[in-house]
Amino acid sequence: MKKQFFLSALLALAAFSSQAQLLKIGVKAGLNYANFSGTSIQTDAITSYHAGLVSEIKLLEKFAIQPELLYSTQGATYKTIAGDIENELGYIAMPVMAKIYFSKAFSLELGPQASFLLSEKNKLDVSNSNTFDFAIDAGLSFKITKSLFVQGRYVLGLTEISPNAESKNSVLQLSAGILF
């Protein structure tokens, strides 16, 4: 009986240990270079930031799913006769990336992103922005060590930022992070 219990405990520990290697959780932060696309008004990009939680679920040797929960600021500066007007939008972004590994360190990331508007800072009282933004993300990731990584990603907004505008978010992201 003791041998069976010991053997069962050993197998359970081995199974838990192998599962722990399939799931990694961490944090990441970085810079956004954001602008609006599809607008008839001339805009300039703003530099902002993103930060949050990241996880990686390894499904196959060369394939993983990477869900994230980020706070991301995006927007643009409008050029007007009266001067520049900056519009900054703060989102909770939830990208779910499919990661295809080319090597142990280098991977391609593709996937959808749903974002929910939390704040809007602008120097001009304009109509409110849509509270939901849907985008497609694509990028590259490089693991410096087993835990440290850097990423470059482009976020292409598919929904308009406001009911009265044809503008969509367009963001280039550079990130660094650590997985535990």
UniProtKB/TrEMBL annotation:
Q: Where is the signal peptide?
A: 1-20
The cross-references to InterPro entries, in alphabetical order and at most eight, read: Beta-barrel_OMP_2
> What positions does the domain Outer membrane protein beta-barrel occupy?
19-161
Q: Which UniProt keywords apply?
A: Signal
* Entry protein name: PorT family protein
